[in-house]
Specification:
By secondary structure, the chain is of the alpha/beta class. Helix content is about 35%, strand content about 20%. The chain contains seven helices and eleven strands. The radius of gyration is 16 Å and the shape is globular.
């Protein structure tokens, strides 16, 4: 099971992930509504400090396709994770212009929401409760998705074993890795060690 630590925004966050080696590091780009938001320039700087073995995932919400393609092609991020209303044409065009992986997030509230995720042409789909709410959704809905998926939303030390029963390709952790809205190296360590042991 892969591990993504998302919402990294400080050099200290990069030091922590370099030390404990999750599989992916996430940056929230140009989304001021999030307190974890950073600019592409900040992402470039943080990415330059990131271990070469950890791909940088750029979380974007309804950004112009040209901007996201530029971030991918310029090495600011390695993977695009789309959280807005980006459609199939956007996903295909972005992949064609960059040759880089494109992930798409889906809010899961019902079986209908799952159908859209099942049918997405994205390289990976991310299933979430909302975006950045820190709460889980009804995980039993994902048992029959029939494709690899990333599980996100409200993952913490006390529910990781239950989350693992859904057999996600990866777990995406953000608020569960924080203390007072700041990434906590000790929580990052414990989360990664726990998931690796499941």
């Amino acid at each position: 099971m892969k591990i993504k630590i998302c919402g990294l925004s400080r050099p200290a966050d990069i030091e922590a992930v370099n030390r404990y080696q999750p599989d992916y590091a996430g940056f929230i780009l140009n989304f001021p509504k999030s307190f974890r938001n950073i600019t592409p320039e900040q992402a470039k700087q943080l990415h330059s400090m990131l271990s070469d073995s950890i791909p940088a995932v750029g979380v974007t919400v309804n950004q112009p396709l040209e901007a996201v393609a530029q971030w991918l092609n310029n090495g600011i991020i390695d993977i695009a994770q789309l959280h807005g209303q980006e459609d199939e044409a956007y996903i295909r065009t972005l992949r064609d212009r960059t040759g880089k992986p494109v992930w798409k997030a889906f809010k899961i509230r019902s079986g209908t929401d799952l159908e859209a995720a099942k049918n997405s042409s994205a390289d990976l789909v991310l299933l979430d409760n909302g975006y950045g709410t820190g709460e889980t959704f009804d995980w039993t809905l994902v048992r029959d998705i029939g494709r690899p998926f990333i599980l996100a939303g409200g993952l913490r030390l006390d529910n990781l074993s239950e989350a693992a029963e859904m057999q996600p390709y990866a777990m995406d952790l953000s608020s569960g890795a924080e203390t007072n809205r700041v990434k906590d190296p000790e929580k990052i360590r414990m989360l990664i060690e726990t998931i690796r042991s499941l």
